[in-house]
Amino acid sequence: MSTTIALRSRPRIRPSRRAQRAVAVAAATVVAAVGWADLHVLGGVDLTIDSGPDARSVGLVEVVVAAALAGLAGWAALALLERRRGRGPRSLRLWVGLGLAAMALSLVGPLTADAPSSTQWSLVALHTSTGVALLAAMARTRAGGGGCPEPSRRPAPTDAGGERLRQQVPR
After folding, report:
1. Does the keyword Transmembrane apply (predicted)?
2. Would you tell me how many other CB atoms lie within 10 Å of the CB of residue 121?
3. CA distance 102 to 125
4. How many other CB atoms sit within 10 Å of the CB of residue 98?
5. Cβ-count burial 122-152 (b if 16+ within 10 Å, e if not)
6. How many Å apart are CA 171 and CA 46, to the nearest integer?
7. CA–CA gap between residue 99 and residue 73 (Å, rounded)
């Protein structure tokens, strides 16, 4: 005689969309701060733009504030698109397109700056890594968990002896 015991799994608690988006903005800001530290402190790149008396150094505070403002602007744009067009995949694609355009536009500053090429390319890397982190993290916050579907929770099929069956892949 065999007994079957049904185990109940705990319900998955999902944070609110607002909390997820706040974490996405914070994560992009952390990526920017770590990137700055990597370039400036560890890499020894002098992030000074312009020369002479107008020269200004790109410091940690400027990087963190710019990343946080960009993240909040992206959040506002996504919320506005979702309110106007719904939370479907079309609004997400439009938002990603706008985000990529904004990221490309942000590269104009570093690429046209009066600075050594090491500084220019370091700032391009900083802009790109922060933008990609923000786009990826924020895209995961839309209804349904983002662009990737959740994995199936169904158990794999088994035979009478409990052995897992191999599934045939159509050719």
Report:
1. yes
2. 15
3. 15
4. 15
5. bbeebbbbbbebbbebbbbbbeeebeeeeee
6. 56
7. 10
Q: Alpha helix (H) ranges present in the chain?
A: 17-36, 60-85, 89-106, 108-112, 117-139
Q: CB of 17 within 8 A of CB of 79?
A: no
Give the start-to-end residue ranges of the domains of the chain.
17-139
Check if the beta carbon of residue 26 is closer than 8 Å to that of residue 137: no
Measured from the Cβ of residue 19, the count of other Cβ atoms closer than 10 Å reads 11
Contact predicate 106/93, CB 8 Å: no
Beta bridge partners of 49: 56
Tens of pLDDT, residue by residue over 107-158, are 998 898 888 888 899 999 999 999 999 999 998 887 544 444 444 455 666 6
pTM of the model: 0.72
Residue 32: CB atoms within 10 Å: 27
87-96 pLDDT tens trace: 888 888 899 9
Look up residue 132 and give its two tokens: 């990609």
Residue linked to tokens 């199936």: 152
